[in-house]
Amino acid sequence: MEGRQSSYSTEDIYNGRFHKRKSKEDDEQLQVILQEKKRMYKKKSFKGALFTIMIATLILITYNIFISQHENVLHVISWRRLANIWKPARGLHVTYVSHSQIDWLDVSTVVKKIVYNKQTIHTVGLLNFNETETFEWKTRMFPDSANHIVLHLDSINKNMTWESLYPNWIDEEQRYHVPECPSLPKLNVPEKMIDVIAIKLPCRNKANWSKDVARLHLQLASAGLATSAKWDYAVHMLFISNCTLIPNLFPCKELVTRQGNVWLYKPNLKVLKEKLQLPIGSCELALPFNPQDTGGDHTGDVRHEAYVTVLHSEDTYICGAITLGQSILMTGTTRDLVALVDETISEYHRNGLEQAGWKIRMIQRIRNPKAKKDKYNAWNYTKFRLWQLTDYVKIIFIDADLLILRNIDFLFQMPEISAIANNGTLFNSGVMGFLNEIFTWWHRLPKQVNFLKFFWSGDNKENKDKKTQLFGATPPILYALHYLGFKPWWCFRDYDCNWDSTVYQQYASDVAHNNWWKLHDSMPSQLQQFCLLSSKQKVKLERFRQRAATANLSDGHWKIEIRDPRKNI
């Protein structure tokens, strides 16, 4: 109030914008006014701050009383969660830290699914939660009936990368060293049997989020702890994760429920334990280099296992599929052969496939949204139809440009997903980009079960000769040969037409080419008619030969006289 008695505002006084006083008394009076105003401002500021603190305290006390009286309102942010913003998790490697928010109402909803199944929860294991979250678990989830155990997992070496688990090449033959995967620390098994294992997983919000070694480690370690129980013991695994889990480790059929970022699984412990016997990556072979060392034939449910191929868009692979089917049957398999075909495959060609032993399933093709126009791979997402064969427990997908040389039924004992390596950490799938994003945890098969007809530019003569011997070995050493480049049935049978192009010569092998034609000649004549050359293809082959002659290619295959009877049919 005193401040308003002056003709000068407080702002004017503090900024020195006032007239000079003509007398000493005026100056002294001004000093008194100034000091008085300062005291009043300090007093008001103190009162205002004190009032704010009192109001905030009253609100927080009321808030905590409300929380304690209303246990169902679990999703409201508590003081502890608020404090957690300022208190970083301790004892965790930086890549293990998860920043996912936990909605305790969602957790409570999911946990009730276990209780509704009349399972008593005695022990809960907590992995990768910080101190505040651990406190929430102990006070909110089974606070009276369950014992909560904090699980400690040593972190991996910080230099370990996804590439170290999935190298581009390993010494399968063990010529120089024995391939070995890095070891991952495991969880100590508590004395008490755990009913629920709760795990909080990190999820990086960027590309290749699924190729996170720490994330993989947490899932494998928790799975290992779960399988320490007896197979008939009901163990539930509850994950807090903004990203999906490893689908071939925790399949959808074992998902009990999901609420937000809370996932509850009840795994088949026997099956899960078998999966954990596999290498942690492609750094080791999932099968011995000589697969016959696996200890005999697989004795699974033969009636619900099948070899499957996919044909769509055009009929250029019909001959290959027919030959493939015959080669599989010649190995003595008792599994079904299933061909998924779309409406572009004519009834005439479908009949040929059935004569060759394939069971026909009609499908609608699926377009790859990123494929270039008029390319064959524009519809390669059609292979996702494989997962709709739910009447089979397990299938082995085989491209139509393979030739099976030895029985490969033992592959049915392998888990999803098993494949040969193709490029770096990627496996050969035919829909590589998509499947490699989903199934990042895959297992390396020996290259003999899908040996590529291909010569590296760096291959010396010794390596090339060795591959050539494998292509034509009698009895066969390889289990399956994958014909890359131009397919044998697209060429004249006289030689491998990959020789007629400098770009495709890396796929050229007359020995492998002749091996395919030997099997073709063993087929019934009514099946061989599906491998005739079209007029358009004959013209194309002659054009390639002329270009090779003009370029005077050193291999000289263009000089060979064509005696293939299909030339005149």
UniProtKB/TrEMBL annotation:
Instruction: List the transmembrane segments.
Output: 48-66
A Gene Ontology molecular function term for this protein is: glycosyltransferase activity
Q: What is its EC number?
A: 2.4.1.-
Among InterPro entries, the record links this protein to: Glyco_trans_8 (IPR002495), GNT1/Glycosyltrans_8 (IPR050587), Nucleotide-diphossugar_trans (IPR029044)
Alphabetic keyword roster:
Glycosyltransferase, Manganese, Membrane, Transferase, Transmembrane, Transmembrane helix
Top EC class for this record: transferase
Database matches in SUPFAM superfamilies: Nucleotide-diphospho-sugar transferases
- What does the similarity note say? Belongs to the glycosyltransferase 8 family.
For this entry, the protein name equals Hexosyltransferase
